[in-house]
Write a structure and sequence with these properties.
Helix content is about 30%, strand content about 25%. By secondary structure, it is an alpha/beta fold. It has a 9-stranded mixed sheet, with helices on both faces. The chain has a two-stranded antiparallel sheet with strand order 1-2. Helix 6 packs parallel to helix 7.
Length: about 280
């Protein structure tokens, strides 16, 4: 006896169910754990779907012109964090591309400052080009190269970054598998194929336990996010451990070791204030 032919919709549902079952039991790729770069701030990472995606382009913009230094520092901190976190980046370098116009406006990278953030000068390659169109071309070629871990492009003028150029940069980042960071001096109103747009504002950091400068702090706003919601989070960069952290509570006391009373000196309560110590 021949069975009557099944409905086409029933066959399609059965095939979809079978594919879903196979996908659920398929082993994960070897580099699945390296598909995102987590900040280490739980709420921020949840919003980003685990972290910022690798093999993708991300835009970083300052909240105001005075925040450009904080945005550049955050870009460098992300590069340092990626080098120390992503396994396949262990022996790769960071490339920073800057057009002459952006260099004249904001200045060049300062070696001791870069090293203080945790990035060794031996792993940083700087490329200076004449125009922003040259910078876009150089960034596209660099993103497609699998020998680089992080490619950073700094742009002052938005005219070199139309939708076609941004789409080419996104495709190159996907092909190379690295981290593409686009540092824009101004936020563009046009739509962008970038995976995220992060806005950075400088924030006051807590002093260290000795009253000196503490760890750099910023207010990070996710303005665009293809993998989840947007929002704003305070973030601190630990330049010793090379990780991002949530800021400590301002009312939390700083634990400091307390020295024991010396046993070879007289009790200070019996000290005569008129007597000079020799």
């Amino acid at each position: 006896m021949t069975m009557p032919p099944r409905d086409a919709g029933e066959i399609l549902r059965a095939l979809r169910s079978r594919v879903a079952a196979l996908e659920a039991h398929r082993p994960a790729p070897a580099e699945a754990a390296d598909s995102v770069l987590a900040f280490g701030v739980p709420e921020l990472d949840r919003a980003l779907g685990g972290g910022i995606a690798l093999g993708a382009l991300h835009e970083i913009v300052p909240a105001a012109p005075r925040d450009l230094a904080a945005a550049a520092g955050t870009v460098l901190a992300l590069a340092v964090h990626a080098l120390g976190t992503v396994r396949r980046f262990a022996r790769r370098e960071v490339l920073w591309i800057q057009a002459d116009l952006a260099g004249r406006e904001a200045g060049r990278l300062y070696g001791p400052g870069v090293a203080a953030l945790g990035l060794s000068p031996a792993r940083l390659v700087e490329v200076a080009v004449a125009s922003e169109r040259d910078a876009a071309f150089a960034m596209e070629e660099a993103l497609a190269c699998r020998g680089l871990a992080v490619v950073i492009g700094e742009f002052l003028d938005d005219r070199a970054l139309d939708l076609v150029a941004l789409r080419r940069l996104s495709l190159a980042a996907a092909a190379g598998g690295g981290l593409g960071l686009l540092l824009r001096h101004r936020a563009a109103a046009l739509a962008s194929p970038a995976a995220t747009r992060l806005e950075i504002a400088a924030a006051p950091g807590l002093p260290d336990g000795f009253g000196g400068l503490g760890q750099p702090a910023v207010l990070l706003s996710v303005l665009r996010n293809r993998r989840g919601p947007t929002g704003r989070w305070p973030v601190v960069w630990d330049h010793h451990e090379h990780v991002f952290r949530e800021p400590a509570r301002r009312d939390a006391p700083v634990p400091l070791p307390v020295a024991e009373a010396p046993v070879d000196r007289p009790d200070s309560s019996h000290h005569d204030p008129a007597r000079r110590t020799g």
